[in-house]
Amino acid sequence: MFDPEKVLTTVWKRLSNDTELLNLLGIAVNDNAAKARQILRTSKYEDLAGSIRRLNIFFRPSRKTNNILVSEQVLEIDCHVPYDEFYMAYRILKRVNALVHKFQSDGWIFYYDSMLGELATAPNFFCASMRFSFYEVV
Q1: Domains in the chain: how many in total?
Q2: Domain annotation covers residue 95
Q3: Any idea what the CATH number is for the domain that residue 98 is in?
Q4: pLDDT tens-digit series, residues 17-46
Q5: Enclosing domain of residue 13
Q6: 131: helix, coil or strand?
Q7: What DSSP assignment string belongs to 58-84?
Q8: pTM of the prediction?
């Protein structure tokens, strides 16, 4: 049975436990409070301020497949950085892709789906985004 919370938590743990990604985000490895503030399992970005770098992990609408018993789930990961550090968004997403593409857990295999490019975000911030997909029996 599809468990969205479990999917988000699984991907969150994968990202929040990677030293290289944490360094790119400016998070100390043992700073669990910063991990919780900067790697979110929602699309919220309106509260961005200062020099924070943030990842947002959230679902987009599912897609139908040719098999009515299988649904393609879409997970989006947005990266928000201060505008003068726009290049960091792409470095961070490069690492995210290395961690998530072909990642297998609990019967899911996540695949890179698409680069969304630049998206709207808070004033004085830059956002780039990518999507991953996986299949779920419904």
Answers
A1: 1
A2: yes
A3: 3.30.2000.10
A4: 999 999 999 999 999 999 999 999 999 999
A5: 4-40+50-137
A6: strand
A7: EEEEEEE-SSTTEEEEEEEEEEEEEGG
A8: 0.95
Q: Which residue has the tokens 């910063």?
A: 34
Q: CA 124, CA 57: separation in Å to the nearest integer?
A: 21
Is residue 45 a part of any domain in this protein? no
Residue that the structure tokens 């299949």 belong to:
135
DSSP category for residue 85: G
In a domain, 126, yes or no: yes
Q: Could you identify the residue written with the tokens 């992990």?
A: 57
Please write the tens of the pLDDT for every residue from 107-134: 999 999 999 999 999 999 999 999 999 9
With a CB cutoff of 8 Å and minimum separation 6, the contacts of 7 are 59, 73, 75, 108, 134
Residue 119 lies in a domain: yes
